[in-house]
Amino acid sequence: MNADLDRLLAGVGAVLLDFDGPVCSVFAGYPAPQVAAELVDVLRRHGVDVPPDLASEPDPLEVLRRTGAAGDQDVTRAVEDALCEAERRAVETAEPTPYGREVIVAARQAGVPVAVVSNNSAGAVIAYLTAHRLAAYVSPVIGRAYADPARMKPNPEPILEAVRAVREPASRCVLIGDSLSDIEGARAAGVRAIGYANRPAKVELLRDVGANVVITSMAGIADALLKDADVKLQSDR
User: Fold this and answer.
1) Do residues 108 and 89 make contact, with C-beta atoms less than 8 angstroms apart?
2) How many domains does the structure of the chain reveal?
3) In a shared domain, residues 120 and 230
């Protein structure tokens, strides 16, 4: 595992991080099912006849996705606005992922650009990074396109936008994500993918969908990046 990770990250041009998972648990203090229920209430206030399966949907991003697929842009904007506000509240109590900060700092030490590519709103991501003194280490932050959930990952466009911003070939970028949509989006964008299995059940799922490497801790990525930094330092002497 460590050897595979070292090979994957050796000489990497840029690290693209998903946010909810590799960096923090966004809804640790403001549970995602509660947010999803609040978005369903927004739908009802706009006169939407909510089917039972959507009424019980625990994932707020899925509520937004299904709202967008229904085609009413005014309702989609209302749900988007409510979700953006909920995410801004959520990041105030988000729980940092162990070694997530260390990965960002290690990449900086290795001279490797770090971008965030998230299905969460850019405003929430930036608020979290600023509060945790990480904003200066991460650029760009690519968040969800406003009221256009079809452009969320696994759509490769936000990943490709990050690739263009870091000015590295897609083949020299690696995306670290904890969801199937992260890995699928990375593959579609031509970017290498590391699956972060923050629950045991995800290990095989992330492998099956095509992750190049699957990890259960972010610590290994920080170690591999620091090794790469040491190699660069030795070669510069």
Assistant:
1) no
2) 2
3) yes
